[in-house]
């Protein structure tokens, strides 16, 4: 019997890594080009003569906050490995300090803030629908899935962290 026929549970899981030189351009495409393309699907409210209005320009504030959070998150994750960003849900490390002491999901939160900035900047209903869908996906599917995986992987250590730090943002008082 060849080893490829053995159940995957018998093989140690090999981590997959995304090098930083790929992570940052990928983030730029996903969080810069894709929102622009989606914004073309509906009219841009608040824009005059092809330019954003003052209200739309205020969207640059959450855009910068979200982008800063993503860059910070990528840097924190890449610091855990010399090979790059560990790709996949079952990571070999559990981040609890820095930005992770205020949110268990600062990367997802940053993505939602960034997308909210694009919604405001482009004045796009299509992006608003994408924001709501993305937020729903994170809150009801992705985050609960990751929490189950992290709890299985890190046990009591993760449960202690989960009890101290909110899912999205804030600081729990004990």
Question: How does this structure look, described?
Answer:
- With 174 residues, the protein is mainly alpha-helical.
- It has one domain (16-87, 100-164).
- The chain is 57% helix and 3% strand.
- The protein is built from 6 helices and 2 strands.
- It has helices at 20-39, 54-57, 60-78, 106-122, 125-154, 156-164, and strands at residues 16-18, 85-87.
- A two-stranded antiparallel sheet has the order 1-2.
- The chain starts with 15 loop residues before the first strand and ends in a 10-residue tail after the last helix.
- The model is unreliable at 1-12 (pLDDT under 50).
Number of helices: 6
Number of domains: 1
The major β-sheet equals: 2 strands, antiparallel
Radius of gyration: 19 Å
Strands, count: 2
Structural class: mainly alpha
Spans of 5+ residues with little confidence (pLDDT < 50)? 1-12
How large is the share of residues in beta strands? under 5%
Strand order of the largest sheet: 1-2
The N- to C-terminal Cα distance equals: 55 Å
